[in-house]
Design a protein that fits this description.
single chain, about 240 residues, mainly alpha, 10 helices, elongated
Length: about 240
């Protein structure tokens, strides 16, 4: 009689993956648990997303992975702040509009408007995971600070902003504020690209996809507003 041997599934790979995830979960809870309110399922989604591009092991890359999550968390805060400011201005404008009988037009409360509209644009957890994964694979955002000082377009704008003519007409405070606005626009453009799935792993990628487009927009707006008061200068 021929005996058929039952083929047992190899669970070693599954056990190893679960062990790696538990190590990640424990380290995440220790280092960043007080900053995030994530479910186990959400944390697992982050782990699955990032582990697909980890070339060595989660143990060896643990601190870099946590750094990527922290960077995304800070980017998410900035998105919330910017969206809140925009919605606040929109809400204020709506509040200043009256119907013919002098009553205010009906509108949602700001808190509800903020929550609903923000989530429709930036509230996707999938986008959060995408940013974590691309951030892990990209050069650090701080690389922008090194690259701009060598960029001819930036050097030209810097000379314009802090040149004698602009300072005499608008003042040093305005020039300094616009410079800060420009740097913020670089950082925002960087994070927006990561959230869309773009990996910026070289200086050339940052120069072409972040610095050049932002400088072009800023230069055009600044040139159009030369001679006008600062209050009329549009933000990026």
């Amino acid at each position: 009689m021929k005996i058929k041997h039952k083929v047992l599934p190899n669970n070693n790979g599954v056990k190893s993956a679960n062990k790696s995830y538990e190590a990640f979960k424990k380290r995440f809870s220790t280092v960043m648990g007080d900053q995030f309110d994530l479910t186990d399922d959400q944390l697992r989604q982050i782990y699955d997303g990032i582990s697909s591009c980890v070339e060595t092991s989660i143990y060896a890359e643990m601190e870099d992975v946590l750094s990527a999550i922290r960077n995304t968390y800070h980017a998410d805060i900035n998105w919330v702040i910017e969206e809140t400011v925009k919605l606040s201005k929109k809400h204020q404008n709506q509040s200043n509009k009256y119907t013919n009988d002098g009553t205010l037009r009906s509108h949602k409360s700001f808190s509800n408007l903020n929550k609903e509209e923000y989530q429709s644009k930036h509230g996707s957890f999938k986008q959060f995971i995408t940013h974590v994964v691309t951030n892990y694979q990209s050069l650090p955002k701080q690389r922008i600070d090194v690259l701009v000082i060598k960029h001819e377009g930036y050097q030209h704008l810097e000379l314009t902003l802090f040149g004698e003519s602009f300072i005499q007409q608008h003042g040093f405070r305005t020039a300094h504020h616009l410079h800060n606005e420009l740097m913020h626009a670089f950082y925002t453009a960087f994070d927006d690209l990561l959230a869309k799935g773009t990996v910026l792993k070289s200086d050339q990628a940052i120069q072409e996809q972040v610095l050049a487009p932002v400088l072009k927009r800023f230069d055009a707006k600044l040139a159009a507003k030369v001679g006008d008061s600062y209050e009329q200068v549009e933000s990026l």
